[in-house]
Amino acid sequence: MVRNTPESIPSRCPVLWPLVTLLAIVAATLALGWAVDQTLQRVAARQPGALVWPLLRRCRVPLQLVIAALLLLGSRPLEKLLDIQGDDLRHVLLLVLIAGLGWLTVRVVAAGLEAFLSRYETLSDDPARLQRVHTQTSMLRRVVSAVIVVVTGAVMLLTFAAMRTIGASLLASAGILGIVAGIAAQSALGNFFAGLQIAFGDTVRIGDTVVVDGQQGTVEEITLSYLVVRLWDYRRLIVPVSYFVNKPFENWTRKDPGLLAWVLLHLDHTTPVEALRAALLTYLRENPHWDGAEWSLQVTDTTPTTLLVRAAMTARTPDDAAALRFDVREHLVAYLRDTHPSALPRIRTGESD
To answer: Are 59 and 109 in contact (CB under 8 A)?
Structure first.
């Protein structure tokens, strides 16, 4: 009679234990990922104001990838299951582990920066400062992510013996290669450093209203190589970030998001300016686009046939300023047409009485 001993089971079932081990690793990976996700979900429910916990839940997939790679490297069930000899499979798992760690680091850094920005938005009431911090945080996230990707790729390449040999020889000629690479990538490097200068030099921020080549728009996105400006008709103007370093441009909201809207009217010399000024004030008090800070109506110039009247008023944002300018122009013309039609400009063909 033959007894089943622990030593005899693997010999008779060479696939059973590696398969059981692989299934156990999969179950452990899923269970650990689920446990971490549930813990973060409970902590987020207890602290609804903190956004870092919901953002960290996005790290579940790369975390499970890292856990699975570590367990597979430690137990080596795939080698026994697939009957693969040598270090090729372990090398593949090592590459997966390094890539997973890089992916997890990018997610954690992005979650931390987004949580910092959200927290800062609740503590600061200064729109200009919020725009500056938003721009700097966005650029910092892109720079850190790019550095992590480059370092992860370099570490993965260094796991190959051939790449280590090539790397040792490249270090000897790093000076020449640096000069060649600098010349070849001059434009890309220029945009990269221009993006850093924009982010931390506070020349232009996300949400600013700028005028680029005669086109007005709102800065929608800033990357390390280009800047996206949303125009009034919802077109997107893609501009290299080096443009904002090398060429002059208008930034209407760099210091103060509020703007002065103005309207010019050509009117007849008989226009009752005081009545028109009172009508403007009455209308501004009812218009939601006016911020209540400043307003004026003045005769700025005269011609042989008309008066040049300028109405000026302040608004909180460039969009409000544009809407206010349209509303005021329409209202003043309608007011003069209904109450003082003689104030509208006319072409005189004969002598007046």
So the answer is: no
Q: How far, in Å, CA of 79 to CA of 93, rounded?
A: 11
Which two tokens mark 119?
């927290």
Between CA 61 and CA 29 the distance in angstroms is 10
What does the alpha-carbon distance between residue 280 and residue 296 come to, in Å, rounded to a whole number? 9
Instruction: Name every residue whose Cβ is closer than 8 Å to that of residue 310 and which is 6 or more positions away in sequence.
Output: 262, 263, 264, 265, 296, 297, 298, 299, 300
Burial (CB < 10 A; 0-12, 13-18, 19+), residue 302, is exposed
In 162-235, beta strands by DSSP E: 209-212, 215-222, 226-231
Partnered with residue 263 across adjacent β-strands are 311
| 8 Å CB contact between 241 and 194 | yes
Angle at which helix 127-158 crosses helix 88-123, to 10 degrees, equals 170
Kindly indicate the confidence band of residue 255, based on its pLDDT and cuts at 50, 70 and 90: low
pLDDT of residue 330: 93
Tokens of 140: 């910092």
Token pair 């600061």 in the structure block, residue: 124
- Whether residue 207 is contained in a domain is answered as yes
Residue entry with tokens 């609804």: 48
> For 79-93, 101-115, 297-311, 321-335, which range has the lowest pLDDT when averaged over its residues?
79-93
Instruction: List Cα–Cα distances, 47 to 40, 41, 44, 119, 122, in angstroms.
Output: 10, 10, 5, 13, 15
Return the structure tokens found at 328.
């005021």
pLDDT computed for residue 217 by the predictor? 83
Domain residues for 43?
Answer: 9-123
- Nearest-5° Cα angle at 54, 50 to 60: 145
236 lies in the same domain as 301: no
Does any domain span residue 96?
yes
The tens digit of pLDDT for each residue in 152-172 reads 887 888 777 766 665 555 444
* 147 located within any domain: no
- Long-range contacts formed by 183-188: CB under 8 A, 24+ apart: 187/242, 188/225
C-beta of residue 250 within 8 angstroms of C-beta of residue 210: yes
Tell me which of 251, 273, 296 is where a domain ends. Answer: 251
